[in-house]
Amino acid sequence: MILKNQTAAPATSLSSTEERAILMVTCLAAFLFFNSFGSISVALPTIQKQFGNSLSEIQWITLMGVVTISSLSFCFGRAGGILGQRRLYKIGVALYAAGAGLGALAVSLSQLLTARAAMAVGLAMALPMSTALLAGSFAAERRGQVLGTFASAIAVGRMTGPTLGGFLLQLGGWTWIFWMNFIVGFAVTLAVVKIFHGPGEQRPEKFDIWGSLALLIGYPTLLIGLSFGTRLGWDSFWVNACFAVAALGLAGFVWIERRAEKPLVDVKIFRNRALSAAMVTVILSHMLHNPIALASPLYLQNVLGASPVAAGLLLAILPLSTALASPLSGRLADRFDATSVAAVGIGLIVAGIASYACLGIDSHFALVGAVLALLGAGIGFFTPANQKIAFATVAKEDYGVLAAMLSSFGTAAGTIGTTIAVALMENAGGGDIWSSKAVFAGAQQFAFACLVPVGLVAVVISMRAKGRASASARDTDSMS
């Protein structure tokens, strides 16, 4: 991977019509992908009743998507540079649509899981390629705005997923959700094929097969162990077996990458301080805000007594706030210093987590909504600006790998953060955490208060990155 100390090279010249078409179709695809996460999750209880499987078996419908996307994104990120990012993006979107169609026809859980695996592999191809294609298709001075619009489309997809899924579930059953994903996915596939001509730029180089195998052994088992640890117990044989396999796989991956001629992930890239800071803050930010997705629905319904409809409306405030803040963040990152915008974003995330840690048993719905809005705005301000910083540090041909790293590191960090938050809550609440409102509220306050120092570390790293970027800019100016 080629490192850069200045702004990335200009993108290939495109007409304004071509740029609008690329942005529109990638945003539509991203909306569809992230909408499906929420819509399919709403259908899980109905699917469980129809097929008669246990909840632990049904949860693989969701878990398979997270594990597959996180694990394969690295491989497809590198393969995109070899085979062509446009080619992989088109295949990924088509595979996602085909998997959704197979899911709609499934008559057993095993068939549905097979279809879901196809959807997940398609997503693992398409998601890193979409960000890489956007970063490579637009000039650096407009990249923040484009990435902000893309982040907004993702947030809107997250926000509308449960609502749309519930509507389709009530209208025609869970198969309607998969039919909707198939029909829209097929239409998006046609648009993608029409807009993205050819395979894209290709580099004839070796693919790191052994590194990929080691990663596919270590990374999924780590995520599975973290996901099941809170349910089966950290002393469970299967959980510890997952961690042992993960340790061997990830250790082997690092060993292979340090010796490979063309590594899947060149560890030397982390010598670039701007990129290292961007990656670390991505990890810490996801550790901070991902636990909210698990804790807040339980808090709203079990402690404050919100109805499912009221809880859903309140929870929608966070992605709505992110959707509104993301385009503004992108424009500011293009016009001013992107590191300053990212620092503001991580500061707002920390303020949102600290405020959430103050919510108690008597907190008003309006206060909860304000806290979620603050947190969502922080995510919206941080993500596009931080992505702009990261993409400015590598060569265009490595955008796919970088996009995969941003996505995979964030997912793993979010899983770790949620696991830590749950462990802290259960440790503080003991056996009464699920039976006493006061105990749950107190345990939640304790867990999120413990996460605040993690956020402060992220703020310090972000501010130090800002100082280094300013110094680098002055050095560049003096050399001109």
Low-confidence stretches: 5-11, 469-480
CATH fold group of the largest domain: Growth Hormone, Chain: A
Q: Which descriptor suits the 3D outline?
A: globular
Indicate the structural class: mainly alpha
Question: Strand-and-helix sequence, N→C?
Answer: HHHHHHHHHHHHHHHHH
Work out the count of structural domains. 3
CATH homology group of the largest domain: MFS general substrate transporter like domains
Largest sheet: none
The tally of strands reads 0
Strand content: under 5%
CATH top level label of the largest domain: Mainly Alpha
What is the CATH-assigned architecture of the largest domain? Up-down Bundle
User: What is the rounded Rg?
Assistant: 22 Å
State the helical fraction: over 70%
Count of discrete alpha- or pi-helical segments spanning 4 or more residues: 17
Q: Could you tell me how far the N terminus lies from the C terminus, measured between alpha carbons in angstroms? A: 26 Å
Overall mean pLDDT: 83
